[in-house]
TrEMBL record:
<dbReference type="GO" id="GO:0005524">
    <property type="term" value="F:ATP binding"/>
</dbReference>
<dbReference type="InterPro" id="IPR051131">
    <property type="entry name" value="NEK_Ser/Thr_kinase_NIMA"/>
</dbReference>
<keyword id="KW-0418">Kinase</keyword>
<dbReference type="InterPro" id="IPR001245">
    <property type="entry name" value="Ser-Thr/Tyr_kinase_cat_dom"/>
</dbReference>
<protein>
    <recommendedName>
        <fullName>non-specific serine/threonine protein kinase</fullName>
        <ecNumber>2.7.11.1</ecNumber>
    </recommendedName>
</protein>
<keyword id="KW-0808">Transferase</keyword>
<keyword id="KW-0547">Nucleotide-binding</keyword>
<dbReference type="InterPro" id="IPR008271">
    <property type="entry name" value="Ser/Thr_kinase_AS"/>
</dbReference>
<feature type="domain" description="Protein kinase">
    <location>
        <begin position="1"/>
        <end position="185"/>
    </location>
</feature>
<keyword id="KW-0723">Serine/threonine-protein kinase</keyword>
<dbReference type="InterPro" id="IPR000719">
    <property type="entry name" value="Prot_kinase_dom"/>
</dbReference>
<dbReference type="Pfam" id="PF00069">
    <property type="entry name" value="Pkinase"/>
</dbReference>
<dbReference type="GO" id="GO:0004674">
    <property type="term" value="F:protein serine/threonine kinase activity"/>
</dbReference>
<keyword id="KW-0067">ATP-binding</keyword>
<comment type="similarity">
    <text>Belongs to the protein kinase superfamily. NEK Ser/Thr protein kinase family. NIMA subfamily.</text>
</comment>
<dbReference type="GO" id="GO:0006950">
    <property type="term" value="P:response to stress"/>
</dbReference>
<dbReference type="InterPro" id="IPR011009">
    <property type="entry name" value="Kinase-like_dom_sf"/>
</dbReference>
Length: 189
């Protein structure tokens, strides 16, 4: 079924909020995170890796619900496949993808973590990640949760997704099972 995203995409939404200096509250951030996570869980349970998750590929419907879009780089995974193809948008590419190493569903989790950070801070954590074709060092960004009125669990959630070492990065399924993540998501219901 084809749907029309009446409210544009998440990239434009974040840009507008940033230009206005209008930070989002924790409730709104978690609602948007929940929508994107639901879409990714749907894909991952069907053995599909998105490989180009970014705010421009997240559409906003009239009811403010978010939907994933642009599956042109998606891939169906088969029995513990690992990929090495470097695809996606560099600013949202997991370190292992950018380095040409094996990657899996956790590369989508990295991109979700970057989007989560952007929703919290209204800026990209690694804006200068690539300079003249060279990869800069990756580090885990810190959310100024105490300055924005967020709970400390917001930083913990970000830390679970934006881990440079994919072995330390949590799967989306495990993240969503965590009690503090469930509590954050329950607060939006």
């Amino acid at each position: 079924m084809l749907e029309f995203a009446e409210r544009g995409n998440l990239a434009t939404f974040i840009e507008r909020r940033a230009s206005d200096g209008a930070f989002l509250n924790q409730h709104t951030i978690m609602a948007k995170f929940g929508d994107i996570a639901d879409g990714l869980i749907y894909l991952h349970f069907r053995n599909v890796i998105h490989r180009d998750l970014k705010p421009a590929n997240v559409l906003i419907c009239v009811d403010n619900r978010l939907k994933l879009a642009d599956f042109g780089m998606s891939k169906i995974m088969h029995d513990d496949d690992l990929n090495r193809t470097i695809v996606g948008t560099p600013l949202y590419m997991a370190p292992e993808v950018a380095r040409g190493k094996d990657y899996d569903y956790k590369s989508d989790v990295w991109a979700l973590g970057i989007i989560f950070y952007e929703l919290c801070m209204l800026e990209h954590p690694f804006i200068e990640r690539f300079v003249q074709g060279r990869k800069k060092k990756f580090c885990v960004p810190q959310i100024a949760y105490n300055q924005r009125g967020f709970s400390p669990e917001m930083q913990i959630l970000c830390d679970m997704m934006i881990q440079v070492d994919p072995k330390k990065r949590w799967t989306l399924e495990n993240i969503l099972k965590q009690q503090h993540v469930q509590q954050l998501l329950d607060r939006i219901k």
